[in-house]
Every structure is written in structure tokens, then in C-alpha cells.
């Protein structure tokens, strides 16, 4: 139930014997197969000059070996969809309209509850989970906390308005998250609707719809008249099949907090999206820094349920306090363990807060350390330049540094000053920002400092490639 010496050595790409030596210096006599608790493991990792990277909830931090699922245990699960797009293009209306397509909705007498996510069963018998908070802010802040819940992004574009600034932002965020996009051309009932203009405009942002020879599905809908919704559901289901979304329902549950609040009558309430396994009443869960026994669960129709499988959103009652949105949720074996993890995390959180702004610097070094620890197989870069030509040249240069073991991923190669949106994106993707002959706005600078995002200023291209190459090399030659 804790990490072994050899596994820890493996993760740091170092020899087990070296780990044993370090442990001896710390006064711990250990063999290669011995298990270490989370605190000890962390000390060892620091001793090697690495920073601890929480790879997953069942990792070093928890001291639980991740439950690895056999391929044969995986069953198809519903896709989880986030709706994004420009303000007033109909995101909320579309979410309401999709919700009304649920065939299971009325029959059990449940009343619609807005819990942050809902699931529909389509007339064709497929299930789709929608995150009820539209827009890229929630999406990105969840990602920044390490939660990746969205499988598919539905990009809403009003047919009478076309591609607008937030449409472009949404595309960037979806692409950075590697989430496939389905375009919903909305308001097609309006007299001024021009779906072809929308498709044309999307081309400029590397979204090529099927009609134009690309592989992005697009569907004309009217959220108001409720037309085209079945086609949109079909498109989502098809995308889910392509993605081959599966999870093992027969294991202890893991998920993410979608929303949370303190209810006067019921105490702390959290909406949890189950991502793996099955969550049951009576389970002991840790959610971020909080823990508790699941006292009751309610679905999006306000009905009491006893268990929830993969892709199901549920309202969970029984936590000791309110966890943050985007925090990971995991079922543990007993209360002692839950308390231990919760206390550990609270202590870490306090330390982090105490460290405060000092954490902001040296983030390039941190990235290097993580790469050396073998936790990161990709270097994400966000490029902003003064002119398009430079942005393109930089992108090409940086991408050439791609190595078979470590991928260099350019999230954006754009023009203009660095904005808060860039910082958000960089933070969510753990990216370093390359500022080429451009500056950051003062708000963006503040945000970067607070969030520990590294902005590097350059005016010479080869200096950029030197720096990025250093990051890549850190991964290729981790041997001691
Ligand atoms: P959001 O800001 O993207 O969430 O947009 P809303 O869902 O709030 O919609 C903005 C406005 O557009 C509202 O007045 C809606 O009634 C209207 N609207 C949304 N969808 C449609 C549609 O399909 N057709 C028409 N004609 N109006 C729509």
C-alpha cells in the first residue's frame, strides 16, 4: 500500500542501491522491496534534488500503489462534454436544450437539480455527461488543478455572428487540453444565419469541418427551436466511439470535484464526477484536503442513489468540510488512512502558502527537475512574438527539438503581448512562456508571479532554442 524503494528509484530514473544509501544516511535501513510511507518517500525525492510531482492521486503522495486496470476490465463509459464559445452564442440555452432530450428524465418523477453536471440518456440509448458550467474559465481552472474531466468540447458558434474572440480562446483551450472539438453552429433559425461563413472563419483557426475535407464534425442546431439536437448527440456519441472511452467500474472509485458548497441544512456538499470505479454510500473518501464517509448521494434529478459508476456526476454528502472545485476524489480503505492523507495535504498546503511568492521563481528549474524525475515526457511551450513571421519561425525551431523520448508541444504560436489568458493556459498545461520581443500586461505579470508561471523574454531566436533544448535534454540524460 506504499511505494517500494525500487519503484521510487524507477520513477527518479536512478538505481535502487542509491536510494537505499540515501535512506541509510537518513537512518532508515531498507531493502529494495521495502515499502516507504509518503513522507519518507518525499524526503528521499528531495534528497535527490527533485521536487515531488504528484503524478496521480494514488501515487507517492498517498502512498498507495495505483490500481492498474487490466484491459479486459475496462467497460465503455459515457463521454464527458464541456460546452464553450463566445458570450451570448447560446451555451446556456444549448445546455438546457440538451438536458431536455433526456429520455429517462420525466419517468422517475425526479426534479431537475443544478448540481454542476448532468447526464442524459439519448433516444438512441446512449449516455452523455455534460458539465453544466459553460465556458473555458472553469475548464481551465479545473485543468490547472490537475483535473482533466472533459473528453469532448462542444464549441458553440452563433450562425448570425460567426467566430468571435472568445470562440478563438475556446479553441486554444480545447487544443491545449487535447480535447476534440465538435462545432455546434447555433441560432440557425435566425434570418441572418450563415453557417458557411462560420465554417469558413473556423478554417483560419485550424478547424476544418468534414464538409471542407477536414475531420471536425459540425452540426447545425437551434437551442431555441430545439432542432438538430439529435444530430449533435449522434456526433458526440461517434466521437466517444473514436476515442474508445472506457473505465473499470469494478474497483474503488476515483473522480474529481466539479462544484462544492456549504448547505445550511445538509453541511458540505460536493458534486463529484466519478471517473474510475464505483462510488458507494458508506465509502470513505478523500477530496482534496477534506475527507469523510459518504452519507448519501443524489443524482442530477435529486434522487437518492446508492452507487455511481464511471462518468456519473453525483452530489455527495458527508465530507467534513468543503473541498475545492477540481480537487481529486479518491476512496481509501479506512478512516485512519483518510485522516492521514487529509492532514498531510493540509500541512503541504500551509507550507505552500507560507512559501508564497518565493515559489514563483525558478520554475524552469522545477520543470527540469520534474523531467529528470521522469514524470514528464513532454515540454509544453507557449510562444508569443511581435510579428507572425517570428512566431512561425520560433514554432518551427522549437518543434525541431522534438526527441523520441520527450515531445516538445507548442500550445500557441501567436502574436501580441502576453495576457492573463496566456498565463491561465500555461499554468493549466504546465508550459513555459516564450516572449519574443513582446511584454506581458501588468495583470498577466502579477498572475504569472502568483501562479508560478515562467515567462522568459528573448530577442534572439537561438537563445530560445538553447533554453528549450536544455529542457528536452534533461529528460534524455537522466542517468546518474
Ligand atoms: P451564452 O451566453 O452563450 O450562455 O448564451 P445564452 O444561452 O444565454 O443565449 C444568449 C441569447 O441568445 C439568449 O437571448 C437566447 O435566448 C438566445 N439564443 C440562444 N440560442 C438561440 C437559438 O438557437 N436561436 C435564437 N434565435 N436565439 C437563441
TrEMBL record:
Its localization reads: Cytoplasm
Could you confirm whether the keyword Repressor appears in this record? Answer: no
Q: Where is the signal peptide?
A: none
Query: What domain of life does the native source organism fall in?
Result: Bacteria
Tr-type G domain boundaries: 76-244
Q: Which GO terms describe its molecular function?
A: translation initiation factor activity
* Positions with a binding annotation for GTP: 85-92, 132-136
Keywords on record: Cytoplasm, GTP-binding, Initiation factor, Nucleotide-binding, Protein biosynthesis
Q: Which family does it belong to?
A: Belongs to the TRAFAC class translation factor GTPase superfamily. Classic translation factor GTPase family. IF-2 subfamily.
Task: Give the function comment from the record.
Answer: One of the essential components for the initiation of protein synthesis. Protects formylmethionyl-tRNA from spontaneous hydrolysis and promotes its binding to the 30S ribosomal subunits. Also involved in the hydrolysis of GTP during the formation of the 70S ribosomal complex.
Give the protein name, as stated in the record.
Translation initiation factor IF-2
Quote the range of the complete protein represented. 358 to 837 of 934
